[in-house]
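Need a sequence for this fold. Nothing fancy.
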């Protein structure tokens, strides 16, 4: 492995600024969820009350965990139906200057599921498939809503730790509305303006045409029967796609959604034109997940607990980021024998305006969080460099993770850790004064094991069926990696793609859509069940035998648990993909 001084400086600056922003944003979010007055309520409080009145929501009425879960699921079902209808009827809806037709049933299903589950997997090219109305009224709105759902659920879980002898964990409608009004909307407006200042486009005008300096000749094509399928033509101008981009990119990053306006995502110069815009977008990916850790500490009354989670996540993320950069900076070993200069490292699939260091940290961060946006093509990384984003997702997206989902996923691993530690010392496991018993461990087991199950079963089905193998463009270990990555991305609600896989087919659209649903809701329901169970329990005062959960020792055990439970499940599959490809490169 090799590193560059410039790359290390970029990483230090990135994580330093992220650390500085964690506390103030975490404090602010804690006030929002605790119902305390904030400066935003002076300007938006009237709108919050109006929304409650229109929706018929009693803001003071709370829900038990079953009612909360039903509200989440029904709200998501409603969002799916609405988005599916928009995509299917796109051709008849307004704001469609390119006259795009409606999506096919399987593509509309996959896209609608993808966006309501905060996955944002894209089997389509945004600028060539989606109208402005679909992008704004469909996809962007779901970017806000799905992110708010994840944040509401983690707040409900936190209330389970802080309350006692009650079956109430909050009101989903209140949590969701306050999340959007006071957190996601203001941050998105700020980021959209900053991105616009860097050249990210924001317009409702149709595509722009530009004359070509050199004319392009399109040759006549015929099929096997001699029928002309494409007439000869001379192309004198290029159509350049534009649209309301900055507004969508802001929430796609802040909400760890990742769905880009363009097919090339954040590698596209209209989504991400400058190194500064790249830094802003990358910072936005982890901004809320990092602040949620501190918010957790504030809300449970012990800020050390929040910092312990933050440190545990960083301890995993930093080495993985450096490893990815080192592999990409080292380059392709096959080129060394050919006398090719690899001073710049492996630049295949990367934008020269960003370089290797920026591409490597983005790839690691976007898959640590359930963001999935890309500024380089992961399929073009070296085998072990490309293994890093795959492993980050396979840790169940708990290394900062998605907004809300990353923290409640990490808290599930915390419960496993204290349970194991409790067994080792012969005491009933406790966390934050709550005993962790059989019911909680059953729910945690479901939440942790369901994702590997759907990923590995889905990958196996794709590999052994003709419909699954038909999508592989690259044979051998690389092709297997592409399938494994796709199902890992869908099952963990990430949304990034390894590329090289033809995924816009009925088989993959349906199979990946099902994986997204399982990966989202079969974790949400057990987490809410844990919240309800903990809220009903009394608090146990700490004693001499209580395991401290903010110490370096506990952080180390937690990191080990995440790696052992989260990653080792996938090691046999990973060995058949990127690891096998790495050794094949060395052999040749």
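Here you go.
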């Amino acid at each position: 492995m090799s590193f560059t001084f410039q790359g290390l400086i970029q990483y230090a600056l990135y994580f330093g600024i992220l650390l500085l922003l964690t506390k103030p944003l975490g404090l602010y979010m804690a006030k929002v969820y605790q119902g305390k007055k904030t400066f935003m309520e002076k300007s938006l409080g009237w709108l919050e009350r109006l929304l409650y009145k229109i929706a018929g929501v009693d803001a003071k009425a709370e829900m038990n965990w079953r009612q909360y879960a039903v509200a989440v699921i029904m709200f998501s079902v409603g969002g799916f139906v609405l988005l599916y209808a928009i995509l299917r009827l796109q051709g008849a809806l307004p704001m469609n200057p390119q006259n795009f037709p409606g999506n096919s049933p399987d593509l509309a299903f996959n896209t609608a599921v993808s966006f309501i589950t905060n996955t944002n997997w894209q089997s389509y090219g945004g600028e060539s498939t989606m109208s402005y109305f679909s992008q704004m009224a469909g996809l962007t709105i779901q970017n806000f809503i799905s992110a708010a759902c994840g944040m509401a659920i983690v707040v409900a879980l936190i209330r389970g730790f802080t309350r006692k002898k009650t079956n109430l964990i909050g009101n989903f409608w209140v949590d969701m509305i306050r999340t959007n009004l006071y957190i996601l909307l203001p941050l998105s407006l700020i980021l959209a303006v900053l991105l616009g200042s860097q050249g990210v486009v924001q317009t409702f005008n149709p595509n722009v045409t530009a004359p070509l300096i050199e004319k392009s000749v399109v040759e006549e094509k015929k099929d096997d029967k001699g029928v002309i399928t494409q007439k000869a033509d001379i192309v004198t101008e290029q159509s350049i796609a534009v649209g309301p981009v900055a507004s969508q990119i802001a929430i796609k990053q802040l909400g760890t959604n990742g769905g880009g306006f363009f097919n090339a995502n954040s590698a596209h110069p209209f989504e991400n034109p400058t190194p500064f815009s790249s830094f802003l977008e990358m910072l936005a990916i982890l901004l809320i997940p990092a602040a949620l850790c501190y918010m957790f500490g504030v809300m449970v009354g012990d800020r050390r607990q929040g910092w312990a989670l933050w440190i545990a996540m960083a301890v995993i993320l930093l080495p993985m980021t450096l490893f990815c950069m080192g592999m990409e900076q080292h380059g392709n070993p096959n080129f060394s024998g050919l006398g090719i200069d690899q001073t710049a490292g492996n630049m295949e699939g990367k934008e020269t305006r960003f370089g290797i260091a920026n591409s490597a940290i983005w790839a690691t961060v976007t898959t640590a969080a359930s963001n999935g946006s890309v500024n380089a093509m992961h399929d073009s990384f070296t085998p072990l460099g490309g293994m890093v984003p795959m492993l980050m997702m396979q840790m169940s997206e708990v290394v900062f993770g998605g907004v809300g989902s990353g923290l409640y996923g990490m808290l599930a691993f915390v419960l496993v850790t204290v349970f194991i530690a409790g067994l080792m010392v012969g005491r009933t496991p406790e966390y934050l004064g709550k005993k962790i018993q059989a019911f909680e461990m059953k729910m945690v087991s479901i939440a942790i094991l369901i994702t590997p199950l759907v990923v590995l079963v889905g990958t196996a089905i794709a590999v052994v069926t003709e419909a699954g193998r038909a999508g592989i463009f690259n044979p051998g270990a690389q092709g297997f990696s592409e399938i494994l990555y796709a199902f890992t991305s869908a099952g963990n609600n990430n949304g990034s793609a390894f590329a090289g896989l033809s995924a816009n087919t009925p088989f993959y659209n349906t199979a990946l859509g099902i994986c997204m649903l399982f990966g989202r809701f079969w974790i949400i329901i057990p987490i809410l069940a844990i919240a309800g169970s903990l809220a009903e329990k009394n608090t146990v005062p700490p004693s001499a035998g209580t395991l401290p959960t903010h110490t370096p020792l506990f952080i180390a055990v937690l990191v080990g648990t995440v790696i052992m439970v989260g990653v080792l499940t996938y090691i046999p599959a990973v060995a058949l993909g990127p690891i096998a490809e790495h050794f094949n490169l060395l052999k040749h």
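For context: The beta strands are 208-218, 221-222, 228-230, 233-240, 430-431, 434-435.
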